[in-house]
Every structure is written in structure tokens, then in C-alpha cells.
Write a structure and sequence with these properties.
Elements (H helix, E strand, L loop, with lengths): L11 E8 L7 E10 L2 E9 L9 H7 L3 H4 L5 H14 L2 E4 L2 H14 L8 E4 H8 L7 H7 L10 H19 L11 E3 L1
Parallel strand pairs: 1-4, 4-5
Antiparallel strand pairs: 1-2, 2-3, 5-6
Helix pairs in contact: 5-7, 6-7
């Protein structure tokens, strides 16, 4: 996959993180969904052992991931290395409420003293607020409105795929012909 040669700009990697606590550097699950030429080609997720493997009750209630689930999981640097292999081919991320997910990346890179790659990101939440007049712009609600199939909400792989499919719908609904025209929902890592 090579985004540079794609005239329609429909190559990207949707990403989602779940956290163990209120700290954005406490990632306990990461998920990606690869979109190549406008088609979902791969969805992956990884459990991640957050530093200290500590969890808040509130976060467990949201995603159901517990300390025993991640006790033997790799830490963020290992999983980030896997994700970066995808970013080498396509340095474009998409996230729903990107402020949270990009914040998770930034905080984790800082915690583990890892370099920040040159990555552009787009936010499906910001796009939805510009495109639609729904009373709610949560990921699961939007997917329900557009009959986008999804698995278990608040599991990173499923949410990443939901986000990817939502972004494809947003691109279609706005008549986008490339990512360069989407400044209103764009940022840099």
C-alpha cells in the first residue's frame, strides 16, 4: 500500500486505543484497520500490558479488559513497533475522537521515550459534526445510523474497523476526492 501514489486518497489506517486508567499512557489494547484503495483489507488488535498493570474499576466497566488479561501481554513499545510497520507504508491515521487516541500515542511515546513519527491524522468525530445533524456523534450511534456492522464496542479492533467504515462513508457523503481537502478534520501527530 502506498498512499503517495493514490489519487483518490483513500488509503489510511484507522486506529483505536483502550486505556486501563484515566491516564492516556495506560494503553491496554490497540486496534488498527487497514484501508487500501477504499477497501478494508486487515483488522488487528493487541492486548498491551500498561505500566504497572494497574486498572481502574471505571475503565474495566467500559471495555471489560482486566489485569489478568494483560499480565503476560507485551508493553506499548513492542506493539508500537508492529503498528509502525504499517505506518511505513501509509503514514495516515484516522480515529474517532482523535484527540483521545492521538493523545494516547503522544503520552505513550513520551512515557517510553520513543521517537514521534511524521504522521497525519484525521478525526471522524470532527468530520461527522461538520457533515451531519444527528443528535449524537458517538461512534456506535453513527454506525447504527448508517447500518455499518460492528462487533463489540469499546474493543480496539472492532472500534478501529467501525471507524474505518465510518470514514469511508464520510468521504462518500462529502464528495471528497482526496485527503488534502479535509483540513477541517486533519492534524499532525
Amino acid at each position: 500500500m502506498n498512499n503517495a501514489g493514490n489519487a483518490t486518497g483513500d488509503n489510511f489506517i484507522a486506529i483505536d486505543f483502550e486505556t486501563a486508567t484515566g491516564s492516556r499512557a495506560s494503553i491496554c489494547e490497540a486496534g488498527i484497520c487497514v484501508v487500501d484503495r477504499g477497501r478494508v483489507t486487515e483488522t488487528r488488535s493487541w492486548l498491551i500490558r500498561p505500566q504497572g498493570n494497574r486498572y481502574s474499576h471505571f475503565n474495566i466497566q467500559i471495555h471489560g479488559i482486566r489485569p489478568e488479561d494483560t499480565a503476560d501481554a507485551p508493553e506499548f513499545p513492542h506493539v508500537w513497533g508492529e503498528i509502525c510497520k504499517y505506518l511505513d507504508d501509509c503514514p495516515v491515521l484516522v480515529a474517532h475522537n482523535a484527540a483521545f487516541d492521538i493523545g494516547c500515542i503522544r503520552s505513550s511515546l513520551e512515557l517510553y521515550d520513543l521517537p514521534k513519527p511524521d504522521v497525519t491524522y484525521f478525526c471522524t468525530l470532527r468530520a461527522a459534526r461538520c457533515l451531519y445533524t444527528f443528535p449524537c456523534n458517538k461512534l456506535d450511534y453513527l454506525c447504527e445510523q448508517f447500518e455499518i456492522p460492528y462487533g463489540r464496542h469499546h474493543r480496539a479492533g472492532d472500534d478501529a474497523e467501525m471507524c474505518a467504515r465510518l470514514f469511508l462513508r464520510e468521504m462518500k457523503d462529502d464528495g471528497w476526492h482526496g485527503l488534502d481537502n479535509m483540513d477541517y478534520c486533519k492534524g499532525k501527530l
